[in-house]
Amino acid sequence: MSHVPTARASFSPAGRRRPNWQRMAAWAILVLFVLITLVPFYWMLRISLSDNRTLAANAGSLLPADFTLGAFKRVLGIATLSEATAEGGSGATIDFWRYLANSVLTSAVITVCQVFFSAMAAYAFARLRWPGREKVFFVFLTALMVPPIFTALPNFVTVQQLGLLNTYAGIVLPYLFMTPFAVFFLRQFFLNISREVEEAAIVDGAGHARIFFRLIVPMSSAPIATISLLVYIGAWNEYFWPLLVGQEDDVRVLTVALGIFRSQTPQAGPDWAGLMAATLLAALPVIALFTVFGRWIVNSIQFSGIK
Amino acid sequence: MRRITRLAAVATMLPLALAGCGSGGDSGGDAASTEKTEISYWLWDSNQLPAYQACADAFHAANPDITVKISQFGWADYWTSLTTNLVSGNAPDVFTNHLNYYPEFAAKRQILPLDDFIKADGVKTDAYAPGLADLWVSNDGKRYGLPKDFDTVAIFYNKKMLADAGISEDEMKKLTWNPTDGGTYEKVIAKLTIDENGKRGDEPGFDKSKVKVYGLGLDENNGAGVGQQMWSMYALSTGWQFTDKNPWGTRFRYDDPRFQQTIAWWRGLIEKGYMPSLAIARSGTSVNDGFGAGKYALSTNGSWMINSYYGYDGVEVGTAPTPVGPSGKRATIYNGLADSIYAGTEHKDQAWQWVKYLASADCQKKVAEKAVVFPAIPEALTIAEEKFAAKGIDISAFTVQIHEKTTSLYPITDHASDISAIMGPAMDAVLSFEADPSSLSKANDEVNALFQ
Amino acid sequence: MSAITERQHGASAPRRDTSVPRRRRRAGDLPVALVFLLPAAVGFGVFYLWPTLRTMYLSFTDYSLLAPPEWVGAENYRRLFQDPLFWNSLRVTVEYVVINIGVQTVVALGLAVLMHRLTRSGLIRGVLLLPYLVANVVVALIWYTMLDAQLGIVNRALEWVGLDPVAFFGETATAIPTIALVNVWRHMGYTALLIFAGLQAIPRTVYEAAATDGASEPTMFRRITLPLLRPTLVLVLVLTVIGSFQIFDTVAVTTKGGPVNATRVIYYYIYELAFQRFDFGYAAAICVALFAILAGLALMQLKMLRAGDTDLD
User: Fold this and answer.
1) Cα–Cα distance between B85 and A157 in angstroms, integer?
2) CB neighbours of residue C148 within 10 Å
3) CA-CA distance, C252 to A258, in Å (whole number)?
4) Are C167 and B80 a contacting pair at CB < 8 A?
5) How do B296-302 and B211-216 pair as beta strands?
6) How far apart are CA B205 and CA B197, in angstroms?
7) Nearest CB to A152 within list B74, B84, B302
8) Which CATH number is C301's domain given?
9) Residue of A60, A59, A56, A85 lying closest to A70 (CA atoms)
10) HSE-up of B151 (CA within 13 Å, CB side)?
11) What is the pLDDT along chain B (452 residues), one digit of tens a residue?
């Protein structure tokens, strides 16, 4: 390990030495894409602060139509039936905080277990030598290609036979052990870890468990953090499976509960304001998570050898 | 524990069911009153949830041993979840059913025929608006649902645009239509169309490439082979029928000249600039939102959309019945929902009690109070009429066709979803001028081939 | 190109021995490997392998979901070859994937490199990831309203600058590109993040050395970033291409396969067959066909990946 660019301080962007038009153009492009990203969010915010009944007539306006917090009240379940229907919402009630807690719990369990088990598998695929390794890995990978509508039904029957319908366990079970994505992603990073490091540890008499926990995992903390975030978002947004398995109120997750703001009959449109308010509120916890852990994620990928 | 009580409930109910006595009337005060059962019930419309929750509460009050647990799923998820649950033997005891789906469920023995229950309890199937109950008799001659509501189609109009064009609301009630020149209906549509220079569709110099307000809105769906609120009211008013007989026809008639002329006239409105192109109609906003935004002066739609159309602030809405056609009569499809009992239910009798209650005047009056749908029982409909009127909505444009007996039953046949898969793209092709209306004869052959 | 990679390596890494990583080739790791694989294997077997095998079996049956499957041999596959709608759906899907992946990869690579070279701001990364936090269905709905020909704000803006409105989702020609770009919007930050993670693995010293040699940014991108990033790019491509083939939600919420069959992508066609028309056996056959195509693609991509394995040691 001759390259040890250790400290972050030693980094100085090469471009900084020539602040030229290239850099300006590069910034301009980046800002442009940030804007493209944000415009639809402004539009969601605008709709969420509007009254459904005046939304259509004010389609061209950049400001909320008939500003109201009614949609957020509906999402949080604190609007009365008459308040809700007066603004074109549905009469359904939801217990936002309970569903939020369910979502946090199931997503967290899925993330921790899936990332851990996937990391173990990735270790076996990347760092251990055994016959048939590549073939088995490819078979694992093919699991990515099975469309969920074909896994949903047999998995539903499996979970039902295990007696886990309407339990947290049933909601998290199919995602608990692995996803091909996580295994693939982590394997790729584990492959890149220098073999010398590992061999030095073996010489020191470390077993595989020790190498995995003390060496591979800490050295891959950034990819692990990244994949954890992505798995968490994925679990958080999961809709169809928890809809099937978690119908009962006490295990229902947020996405399923908020589905109520989507089109309920084949012809009628959604409760636009409610749907957008729900979307924004449901994204907040993940945004908070990113803000807290964001610096740690990805940024800390440094190939700093062993410590 | 719960499983044991369920088993016990089944054990006690089984002999009752076998005896066919179905424990009519009040089941409270029975010796087995300690046996509590929970019936699961599914529906898709969240707007109706409060109404049916009120029914469930009243039902529980009358039958303290039976609790009804209502679950609601949006339309798109409803059928996928229901299918998954049917396949795994886990479906709700009672669920809201749709005409497109029930024949398949009945044929595959997933839902219970209600005839024995009806006979045992002496339920009158003629208590409903005429014809509605017949929709739920399958081609095996058995009945799979009791009607809970119904719907018809009418024209929604923007009152201000009408006044600006000098068209009286009275005129709207007397519109005529034919597939050749469109009759007074097309004249009204033309007059209501305005281009960006303020020229009306029937004035010289009208620029059909720059239309500001279309006389008639085009639904984002083409209605596939049924066209319920899109084109069926025109086609049916020529005397055309979907099939050789209804219900349970086996030959479709999309090759009939009357049908194809109707479609040719309909899409002609696009060419004339009176109706938006299919591309525009499909580009994002629903037809009712377009109406609410003042883009369309008229819009044909079903009674289930009343609250949406009347819900737009700043738009004064009126309704008129569909125009009188070449047959000398108006026409509309007449359709409704019903509740079905899952064949695998462990609580057949309690499920039946609940279905019976849902179809009763008692529950339908409660639903009528909320003024969201038209109840199937006439005396409940009277209440709904009052409640709608209290909201400033006159529903006579929808009900007049029932009084004048000009309604046609929704076409019920086997292969409904296959037909829709054939006719959807075929109608799209015609509406987008990729194919001629005569191409529908070929689609008709494909449809009829399904029945061989 | 690989020569350059080699040379860059020479400057920073002592040796790349990836071509002979099997020094200690022995079955000796097998028991350990089994232990490490066990949980994942259980999950794989129960929740992926079993449903897949079941789907394969069902593809040889006539199965309406509500009645037991009946064996029909290769009938479904025969039907598949003669079904113009299947071939149409395949063509439409490929068109979608090409546009979606093409644009998305270029944009994401660009964004990742820009972020890498310009700023360490977590805020920008966070903002770019925002669309991924929003459910597919909602993303589809919001763009659907924004792009409406008569009322959508995007078309209002087009009119304002003097252009004619476009019925993005409504026209046969624009529907698929529109859907593809909407999904680029949702995934570009996410993909950029994956690529960014790979970029972070390239030692800063390489860039610093190149900068000292007077290399310009575009040169460094061509000679350092691209070659060293290749394994990551292939990884990202494998994952996104497979995901892209499974386009469904956006279509289901917006165009529903139309106009005519312009957006009847394969997954939507499968869904219609399985859950609306109860033709589950045939849907399973299409599913298996799709599976074979994807597996072939992945195999190809992996070959590329293996060729570029561990450019960095």
Assistant:
1) 9
2) 29
3) 18
4) no
5) parallel
6) 9
7) B84
8) 1.10.3720.10
9) A85
10) 18
11) 344 444 444 443 333 333 333 333 333 334 444 578 999 999 988 778 888 999 999 999 999 999 999 988 888 788 888 988 888 888 999 999 998 889 889 988 999 999 999 999 988 888 888 888 888 999 889 999 999 999 999 999 999 999 999 999 999 999 999 999 999 999 999 999 999 999 999 999 999 999 999 999 999 887 888 999 999 999 999 999 999 988 889 999 999 999 999 999 999 999 999 999 999 999 888 898 899 999 999 999 999 889 889 988 889 999 999 999 999 999 999 888 999 999 999 999 999 999 999 999 999 999 999 888 899 999 999 999 999 999 889 999 999 998 899 999 899 988 888 999 999 999 999 999 999 999 999 999 999 999 98
Within 8 A of B75 by CB-CB distance, chain A residues are 263-266
From its phi and psi, is residue A225 left (phi > 0), alpha (psi between -120 and 50) or beta? alpha
Q: Tell me which chain B residue has its CA closest to the CA of residue A80.
A: B50
Q: Which chains does C contact via 3+ CB–CB distances below 8 A? A: A, B
Query: Per the domain annotation, does C129 fall within a domain?
Result: yes
Cβ-proximal residues to B61 (8 Å cutoff; 6+ apart), any chain: none
CB-based contact B74 A263, cutoff 8 Å: yes
ipTM of the complex: 0.84
Q: Select from B289, B313, B366, B387 the residue whose CB has the most chain A CBs within 10 Å, as the one to mutate to test that interface.
A: B313
CA distance between the termini of chain B: 52
A40: its two tokens? 């639809």
A142 touches chain C (CB under 8 A): yes
**Whether A260 contacts chain B with CB within 8 A:** yes
Residue in chain B closest to C142 (alpha carbons) equals B284
Between the two ends of chain C, the Cα-to-Cα distance in Å is 18
Pick the CATH number of B153-334+415-449 from 3.40.1550.10, 3.90.1150.10, 3.30.1330.40, 3.40.190.10: 3.40.190.10
Nearest to B282 among C252, C258, C276 (CB): C258
Q: Is C62 part of any domain?
A: no
* Residues near B395 by beta carbon (within 8 Å), at least 6 away in sequence: B303, B306, B319, B374, B384, B385, B388, B389
| Structure tokens given for B4 | 């044991």
What stretch of H or E contains C210? Answer: helix C204-212
- Neighbouring residues of A198: CB distance < 8 A, sequence distance ≥ 6: A127, A211, A215
**Does C246 sit within 8 Å of A177, measured CB to CB?**
no
Q: Facing residues of B333 across strands?
A: B408
Question: How far apart are alpha carbons A134 and C149 in whole angstroms?
Answer: 51
Q: Does domain B2-149+337-390 have CATH number 3.40.190.10?
A: yes
User: What's the predicted TM-score (pTM) here?
Assistant: 0.86
Interchain pair A264, B46: CB under 8 A: yes
Give the pair of three-digit tokens for residue B156.
Answer: 């929604």
User: Looking at the complex, does the CB of residue C88 fall below 8 Å from at least one CB of chain A?
Assistant: no
* Beta carbons within 10 angstroms of residue B244's beta carbon: 11
The helix or strand, by DSSP H or E, that contains position B148, with its residue range, turns out to be none
CATH of domain A106-293: 1.10.3720.10
**Total domains in the fold of chain C:** 1
What are φ and ψ of residue C174, in 5° steps? -100, -10
> Is residue B79 within 8 Å of B43, Cβ to Cβ?
no
Residue C13 Ramachandran class (φ > 0 left, ψ -120 to 50 alpha, else beta): beta
Characterize the bridge pairing of strands B296-302 and B317-320. Answer: unpaired
Which chain A residues are closer than 8 Å to B305 by Cβ? Answer: 267-268
Report domain extents, chain B. 2-149+337-390, 153-334+415-449
Q: Which residue of chain A has the CA closest to C137?
A: A262
In B1-101 the beta strands, taken as DSSP E runs, fall at: 37-43, 66-72, 94-97
Beta-sheet pairing, B94-97 with B37-43: parallel
Phi, psi for A51 (deg, rounded to 5):
-95, 125
